[in-house]
Amino acid sequence: MSSQRSQDLETDGHQTVAVRPPRMADGAGMWRVARDSETLDLNSSYAYVLFARDFAPTCRVALEGDKVVGFVLGYRRPAHPDRLFVWQVAVDANQRGKGLSGRLLDDLVAGARTDGSPIEWLETTITDDNIASQRLFASFARRWSAEEHVAALFLTDHFPDAHDPEPVHVIGPLSHAPAAAEV
Length: 183
Ligand SMILES: CC(C)(COP(=O)(O)OP(=O)(O)OC[C@H]1O[C@@H](n2cnc3c(N)ncnc32)[C@H](O)[C@@H]1OP(=O)(O)O)[C@@H](O)C(=O)NCCC(=O)NCCS
Description:
binds coenzyme A, alpha+beta, 5 helices
């Protein structure tokens, strides 16, 4: 394949990936992406459909045509609605390294700002061995000119199944949207 042809395909591929809040019909695709990631704790399929129904404003899906190729699951913490907890984010292996996860996070946080209920802080937990995830959130913090602090949160003792500890990363304040993330 010529390099020109391969560049066209890449450009086309990028243009056809749309990002929007999920609908219930996307839940199965989100579950499939989580399963195929081979990294995430796979939740029940029910959980993804439930989030698509009840937490759509704080979740996003990436779609290539009708196919879900990435998602972010999040919710506003009930006691602190300006704090978004990002539970899971994943994109299919053939979509990685293109900035798609960053786009999912930017769209979610920027969307909340324009809805009149800004998200000021993002929280997520990351195991120490998940370098890709650590880089993703460090990159997000830089784009939003925000600070990132890490503290112990979910310890091995909290889990019944020898789960690795999950330190919490707190990123904010999110008052400086990058120009590309304004919606
Ligand atoms: C983590 C994951 C979501 C990143 O998705 P992605 O779309 O490839 O990430 P992006 O292209 O938006 O990259 C964001 C940043 O992370 C960096 N990054 C992404 N993958 C990386 C990797 N494997 N190693 C090192 N850095 C990586 C990018 O270089 C970029 O940093 P930059 O802006 O400073 O250049 C993806 O690898 C994935 O789905 N992994 C499996 C599921 C998972 O572990 N999810 C996180 C825990 S919930």
